[in-house]
Write a structure and sequence with these properties.
By secondary structure, the protein is mainly α. The chain contains 13 helices and two strands; from the N terminus they run ααααααααββααααα. Helix 6 packs parallel to helix 8. The chain is globular, with a radius of gyration of 20 Å. It is found in: Membrane. InterPro entries: DUF6576 (IPR046483), Peptidase_S54_rhomboid_dom (IPR022764), Rhomboid-like_sf (IPR035952), Rhomboid_protease_S54 (IPR050925). Belongs to the peptidase S54 family.
Length: about 300
């Protein structure tokens, strides 16, 4: 899934006092960086890493069994009689680079999405996009390909679309290219998948496109006030962990401090100046260098544009 080198949101690092670091060894640094990840992304990457590690050390027979029984099979009626494959296929990968770049995209761009929508909604977004990608692949399997599918690419593509919808003007740095706004980068990404559908290149283009559609629909619903996190609450309820909230209609409570601006043209120039300043700070120091107020302002200004 790799299509270039990317360094947004960037940032990272961490401080301590003076020259004192918050860790004293290489593995301490790895643990520190890992624990700084948002909780949903951290859990997804950890689970995927464990599965990939088992694939690598389990030998060829175990790997073939895992792909044959847990990879997504789009043929009828398998995808209906074995629906768990629509989730398990996202944790399997065909090689180190396949695994690495999917997880890097998830980490680099997913952080801003999870910090905006919250871990429960992000989890629904990620797996929802992956499931819709699998369903689209199954729906068109007779026309294109009915090969087994593995990898998190569909879910990651949905997350990329979500990022572009939340932060359309955020700069993305590609190696040897000038900064590209997220909306154009993701549009180009999807255009490539559309052009190469049915090309027989071993890439599950339909899964990518279904994931992109899922990301679009879910962020659209989120912006319209739908509480996607209810899906997680219902799953927890089925397993007896929590009780559903009474009177819940699937809508998020509105922020009392939010208001509607009718004459947006009056503040357009001021908003653009603020947005440019924030984007410049991101390009120099990374997304993590922003304060909470700047992150909130970036989200609000991106929605206007």
């Amino acid at each position: 899934m790799a299509r270039g080198s990317y360094n947004f949101p960037g940032g990272g690092g961490g401080g301590g006092f003076g020259n004192q670091m918050p860790y004293d060894s290489f593995w301490g640094g790895i643990k520190y960086a890992f624990m700084r990840m948002p909780v949903a992304i951290r859990s997804i990457i950890l689970a995927t890493l464990i599965v990939f590690f088992i694939q690598m050390i389990g030998g060829q027979k175990l790997n073939e069994w895992a792909i044959g029984n847990l990879g997504f099979d789009p043929t009828f009626p398998t995808f209906l009689t074995q629906p768990w494959r629509m989730v398990t296929y996202m944790f399997l990968h065909g090689g180190f680079l396949h695994f690495l770049f999917n997880m890097l995209w998830l980490w680099w761009m997913g952080r801003a999405v999870e910090e905006t929508v919250g871990p429960r909604t992000f989890t629904v977004l990620y797996f929802g996009a992956g499931i819709l990608g699998a369903l689209l692949d199954a729906g068109l399997a007779l026309v294109f390909s009915d090969a087994l599918v593995i990898g998190a690419s569909g879910a990651v593509t949905g997350m990329l679309v979500a990022f572009a919808m939340l932060y359309p003007r955020a700069p993305i740095m590609l190696f040897l290219f000038p900064p590209i706004e997220a909306r154009y980068f993701v549009a180009g990404w999807i255009a490539i998948d559309i052009l190469f559908v049915g090309a027989g290149d071993g890439v599950a283009r339909l899964v990518h496109l279904g994931g992109a559609l899922g990301g679009y629909l879910m962020i659209k619903a989120y912006k319209n006030g739908k509480d996607l996190s209810l899906v997680i609450r219902y799953v927890e309820y089925l397993f007896g962990r929590v009780k559903p909230k009474s009177g819940s209609k699937g809508k998020r409570s509105k922020n009392k401090n939010m208001h509607i601006v009718q004459d947006a043209e009056i503040v357009e120039e001021v908003d653009q100046t603020e947005l440019d300043a924030i984007l410049e700070k991101i390009s120099k120091s990374g997304y993590d260098s922003l304060s909470n107020e700047e992150k909130r302002k970036l989200f609000e200004l991106s929605k206007k544009n």
